[in-house]
Amino acid sequence: MRKILLLPFCLSRQSLSNIERLAAEHGYAVVVARTTAKALAEVRRHAGSGEPMRIVGVVCDGRAKKVWAGLALLKIRQWGKKALGMKARRIELARVPIVGGTKSLFGRRSCRVGFNLAEEEGLQRALAGADTFMRL
C-alpha cells in the first residue's frame, strides 16, 4: 500500500520537521504544497500504479469544507469505474485537524501562517492506520 501525507504550507517550521520525521518512521511520502492543485498533482506522481493508497491530510476546517467536494467527485469516479467493469484502486483517507487553523471557507486572511500546529495525537493515530474517515 502506498502511503502519502499531505501537509499545508502554513505549519510552523519546527512542526513540519517533527511531522516529516514521524512520517518517515511510518513509511509515508510527504507532500507540502501551497495550492490544492499542486497537492493533487504530487499525489498523482507518487501514486504510480493501481496499488491501494492511504492518504492522510492535515487540513484546517475551512480547507476541509472545500476539499470535501473533490472527495465526493473522486468517490463518484470510483463508482463509475466499478460500474463499467474497470479496475479501481482502493483509497483510504484520513484527516488530521490543525490547531489554530481558520474555520471560514475562504479564510486565508485569518490563517496564522507559520504558527499553526497539527494535532499530535490525531496525527499519530492517522499515521498508524486508525481514524480512516472514508474508503473509496
What is the strand and helix layout of this fold?
Layout lengths: L1 E7 L4 H14 L2 E5 L2 H12 L5 E7 L1 H23 L7 E9 L17 E2 L1 H9 L3 E4 L1
Parallel strand pairs: 1-2, 1-3, 3-4
Antiparallel strand pairs: 4-5, 4-6
Explained architecture:
Helix 1 runs parallel beside helix 4. This protein has one domain. The two termini are 14 Å apart. Strands 1, 2, 3, 4, 5 and 6 form a 6-stranded mixed β-sheet that branches. With 136 residues, it is of the alpha/beta class. The longest helix is centred in the middle third of the chain and has 23 residues.
Counting structural domains, the number is 1
Succession of helices and strands: EHEHEHEEHE
Instruction: Indicate the mean pLDDT.
Output: 79
Please state the oligomeric state of the protein chains shown. single chain
Structural class: alpha/beta
Total helix count? 4
Strand content: 25-35%
Shape: globular
Rg over C-alpha atoms, rounded to the nearest angstrom: 15 Å
Structure summary, number of beta strands = 6
The stretches of 5 or more residues where confidence is low (pLDDT under 50) are none
Distance between the termini: 14 Å
